[in-house]
Amino acid sequence: MTGNIRVRGIYATALTELFVDAGHEVVDASDPIRRRFDDEAFENSVPDVRVSTSADRQGVGASGDPDTVSDVCERLHDVGIDALAWADTTPPGSILDGEVTETLGGGAVVSLRTRDGSSEGYLPYGSIDARVETGDAVRVQVRESAAPWGDRRPEVSGELCVGGGLVALEPGSGTRVDVRDDEAARELAGMVDLLGLEPPEGWRAMWQPPALDADRGALESGLRRAAEAVEGLGSVLDGAAGNAANLVGALDDADAIRDEPLATPNAGVWVWFGRESRFGLDDRRRAVTATMPGHHRVKAGSSDASTGVDLAEALCAPDPDAAFPFGVVTDAFGPMVGDALRIDHGKPDGRCFSLGEGTVTDVTADGSVTVEREMTSGGTYDGLDVPRGPGDVAETSLKEGRWWYPTTYRGADGTVRGTYVNVCTPVEVFPDAARYVDLHVDVIKHADGRVERVDDTILDESVAAGHTAEKLAEKARSVASALEKAL
């Protein structure tokens, strides 16, 4: 199903080309996108789906009309073999019940009742009228979701807001223009008044910055769609005695908490891009404008690196057939010998956690980085069944783009205690962390030279659960078989 899509972030050019090629309409395009696609007429229409880069630049989130989100997810998932997608359990606009589990300096942590169980949200104190304490029951609306692999929580509010894009509606009366330019705000307010664009009774219209460049048809359509979104809350509003102002906020009784969302007007999805996917997006972008090899791979590393890519491409035409300049990138942005580097271990179900932070001991121009970590004593090494002793060191050899990496454990006297080879999506070594998604199956070389392959069953279960595509699982099994023979 085709629809209107708004795209923002470091992947915007490639994704705009992808969506336009698929028959979607890209709307409310940024100025750079308008310049690059000079043959396209991008309207300032209300989007059916919004696509934006995740806070850590590792992927994108999409939310909006369920049918269009489904098609967008399919397109994004097909970008590369290592693109992984997960449904968003807290898409923006959702109204959920929850319980305050922790109070922080600027807000509260809320355990939200979602269809798939419970998810944590962050409720700023300024977005709810009542004072909340641990154990309080609240009804909130999701303002901004968060990627499942990150450490941020979705942001929720105790105030109701419906719609978005050109215009949003909130309980109240009148009209507000939410732009910083006072003269432009007055002009838009006058236009809205002249056209007689009135919000539904009991609601206040809040016109957003994109409305400044929208024509009459788009303004009318935006308000109509926002009003339809209010109508879609009909049964929920009835449950609040018809008073929208009472729809969200603190609940008097914890027994009133509902175990499922009260309203989910939008669907949502999060997509993690691996290294091969980023290079696939490079090809998409290159069809539109000059693009250096590894454009998205570098931009995903840091905001400074992203700025450096823009500068390099503006100064000279990059050679599309050149190799990815790993040495140049690491010399400019890191990591360098002596730096601290995390190992971010993603999982096919969307989780991501750090295996710890080590010291970089070697970096080569061909993409190899060696990291050493001092191990704490006690317990045993996973898979090796060897006790961890005082003074043990783990040496991890990471190579950019490789589908596996080994970690060798040594005792304080240098004796090898075993090597664990992790099979994963192609490794990416960013300035502060090496990242990949673990593919479950691994190969172990014990200190006595015995080689063992483990966790094939867990990979099979991941495929059955829909977390790992069969094509990706086959690649993981192939890599593991090659490692068994090589070791």
Concise structural overview:
By secondary structure, this protein is of the alpha+beta class. The chain contains twelve helices and 25 strands. The chain has five domains: 4-90 and 269-286, no CATH class; 95-159 and 248-265, Nucleic acid-binding proteins (OB fold (Dihydrolipoamide Acetyltransferase, E2P), Beta Barrel), CATH 2.40.50; 162-235, no CATH class; 295-332, no CATH class; 334-486, FomD-like (FomD barrel-like fold, Beta Barrel), CATH 2.40.380.
Model description:
The chain is globular. Strands 17-18-19-20-21-22-24 form a seven-stranded mixed beta barrel. It has a six-stranded mixed beta sheet with strand order 2-1-3-4-16-5, with helices on one face. Strands 6, 7, 8, 9, 10 and 15 form a six-stranded antiparallel beta sheet that branches. It has five domains: 4-90 and 269-286, no CATH class; 95-159 and 248-265, Nucleic acid-binding proteins (OB fold (Dihydrolipoamide Acetyltransferase, E2P), Beta Barrel); 162-235, no CATH class; 295-332, no CATH class; 334-486, FomD barrel-like fold. It has helices spanning 12-21, 31-36, 66-77, 182-195, 216-231, 234-239, 275-286, 295-299, 303-315, 326-333, 456-464, 470-486, and strands at 4-8, 25-26, 49-53, 59-64, 84-87, 95-103, 107-114, 117-124, 137-144, 155-157, 162-164, 167-171, 175-177, 203-207, 249-250, 267-272, 340-346, 352-363, 368-374, 393-399, 404-410, 416-424, 428-429, 433-446, 451-454. Helix 1 crosses helix 7 (275-286). It starts with a strand and ends with a helix. It has twelve helices and 25 strands.
